[in-house]
Design goal:
Length: 318
């Protein structure tokens, strides 16, 4: 058995909840979460204490769509509240699945979900250039009405219609960090910074207010890993390893990268897609530059093998 209470942050991707467009129901998501939770439970059985971050993009989209469809009868749901709703629902699915896997595996550990606020800077440049599309497509008339009446930023999206866009600011502070630290120190498994955290800003008196924004969940999980000073930061995604020239004839799968190599590959701008692998590599760079020792990128079934050095892409400072 591995040394007890080594610590890790595991950031799980969208594929851990929605496998494909045919499997999007709450039950489908629960079953998908069960599979990922089983692999994390195996890691916990080996003596790890884990904080789990997760995405929530499609789930927020579902809530917004329901809200739009019901707007003739019920109040609409603000974006920050959508984030809170998904943290609760996804956290519930993960913690119940972990609880059940613990029973099967004979693991005596507690698991809890923390509804987590993440502070962002109101002066973050992202607020001047909202670029993250959310919600449903609209026609131009509808989009202009929302812009005028609700102050939405809207853009025309490649001939498919108009959409609302919001900022994606950098995470600055995890508000519930002290509570998460206490739980981790007690050996509790914590589900936190769901969807990158609920974005909040502080006013001149330090009081917090929700804002319409989306924080990258890999960046928030990286900040969490830094603040918890964990032994390893794991990004669980759809591929077993990171590739250079992904999907091209000269594709090359990587077993190991140093921090310097990761920065060089990212700077080349051709290897990692902006909406998928690039933020994951940047999140790993942030963790290692802040003093982290080791990060791993792999898919859920290979987490324990990657921890043993048998697969995955391992990124270290040297």
């Amino acid at each position: 058995m591995a040394e007890k209470h080594k610590t890790a942050v595991v950031a799980i991707g969208g594929n851990s909840l929605i496998k494909d467009k045919k499997h999007q129901t709450v039950e489908d998501q629960y079953n998908a979460a069960s599979e990922t939770a089983r692999h994390i439970a195996a890691m916990i059985k080996d003596g790890w204490t884990v904080a789990i971050g997760h995405g929530n993009g499609p789930q927020v989209g579902f809530i917004l769509r329901r809200s739009e469809l019901a707007a003739h009868e019920l109040h609409e749901v603000p974006l920050d509240v959508c984030g809170a709703d998904t943290q609760g629902a996804i956290g519930y699915a993960l913690q119940q699945n972990l609880y059940n896997h613990f029973l099967d595996m004979g693991i005596d550990r507690n698991v809890v979900t923390v509804v987590t606020q993440v502070e962002v800077d109101p002066n973050d440049p992202a607020f001047q250039n909202p670029s993250k599309p959310i919600g449903s497509f609209m026609d131009k008339e509808q989009a202009m009405k929302r812009k005028e009446e609700d102050g939405w930023d809207v853009v025309e999206d490649a001939g498919r219609g108009w959409r609302r866009v919001v900022a994606s600011p950098k995470p600055k502070r995890i508000v519930e960090e002290p509570a998460v630290k206490q739980l981790i120190r007690a050996g509790t498994i914590v589900i936190t910074v769901g969807g990158g955290g609920i974005p909040v800003v502080a006013d001149e008196n330090g009081k917090l207010h929700g804002v319409a924004a989306v924080i990258d969940k890999d960046f928030a999980s990286s900040l969490l890993a830094i603040r918890l000073n964990v032994d390893v930061f794991i990004i669980s995604t759809a591929v077993e390893k990171v590739a250079l020239n992904f999907g091209k004839p000269n594709e090359k799968w990587l077993d190991h990268m140093t921090l310097a190599e990761a920065k060089a590959y990212l700077a080349e701008g051709v290897h990692f897609a902006k909406g998928s692998m690039a933020p994951k590599i940047q999140a790993v760079i942030n963790f290692l530059e802040a003093g982290g020792e080791k990060a791993i990128i792999t898919d859920p079934p290979n987490i324990t093998r990657a921890l043993a050095g048998e697969t995955g892409t391992i990124i270290t400072r040297e």
